[in-house]
Amino acid sequence: MKAALWHARQDVRVMDVDEPSAGLRQVKIRVARCGICGTDVNEYRVGPIFISSERPHPLTGKMAPVVLGHEFVGTIVEVGPGVQDLATGDRVTASGFVTCHECAPCQEGRPNHCKRLAGLGISLDGAMAEYVVVPAELCYKVPDSVSDVAGALIEPLAVGMRAVRRGRLRRSESAAIIGAGPIGLSALLSAKLAGAAPIFVVEPVESRRQVALQLGATHVCDPLNEEVARVVRRETGGRGVDLAVECVGRAETIDLALRMTGKAGRISVPGTFHAPIPTAFARLQGDEKELIGSNGYLEEFAEAVACVATGKIDPTPMVSDIVPLAQAAEAFAAITAHPDKHLKVLIAPA
Q1: pTM confidence score
Q2: Contact in structure between 262 and 195 (CB atoms under 8 Å)
Q3: Do 191 and 109 belong to one domain?
Q4: Closest to 122 in 3D by CA, of 191, 204, 188, 63
Q5: Maximum alpha-carbon separation in the chain
Q6: Of the candidates 51, 192, 232, 247, which lies 20 to 30 Å from 267 by C-alpha distance?
């Protein structure tokens, strides 16, 4: 079968690989659509970050080259021994987390903190391929009423939902989303569903600001041409927002979040940081603000499936491109060269 494999930094290749078979408590899925995640792009640009390139992963034993892709939807074509509640023909998506079930966080119901946490498309072969094999326990059924495009966006939607939940956003509170990439837009959709108002989105790319407005932002701000914190305070009567969701992972955006939030405000951080940053902790301490990490999802995945299935959330406007699997390497190069032109790219294996 054809698959897109990460070999090294700026080296993604579409190749022929052996078609996998479902093993014990696994299912084999024919992939319909697979998203290119920001994690995938970072691995392409500056990796290896999470991909094991020098020694096998401690849980899965996998190391590069690895088939990318963890945001996907498809149809089960083979069920391995020991699988219950799933059958050939079921449409499914899947969590990207593979865990040990043995460490203290796993035993305490926090598998996203697993001490040997592995990632689909990072620490074992993923879904940027014609077929993928995953542990059955990771799968969630997707109704036929959900399009392949929407189904492939459930995983990032769950990430945004957890970031908003971790921020304890309440109805009628104000919120600001920093960064209108797929995670930021997912957080926007979640904040809107939670009843937040107003909702500010901070994003330098005009086309992304327009998508944010389409998805429910009440205000959009260009940080390159506006004093965003001043705008937010003016529009909130000097208070600042109750919750800021930082989806970028930079020192300046954490600083902006600190300046945008009001006294006792909260900052949820799903953004990924790859280096230490200076932070004005005086603002955090003096105003009793909270800086809250957010990693992946737990029960939010099932909730994301339900919200898309019932039509409460439609994430599809964030998709900018759908490209065939054969052009996956070119898609990574294009996203890297022109990130302003590619918001969410989906790969179509067939």
Answers
A1: 0.97
A2: no
A3: no
A4: 63
A5: 61
A6: 51
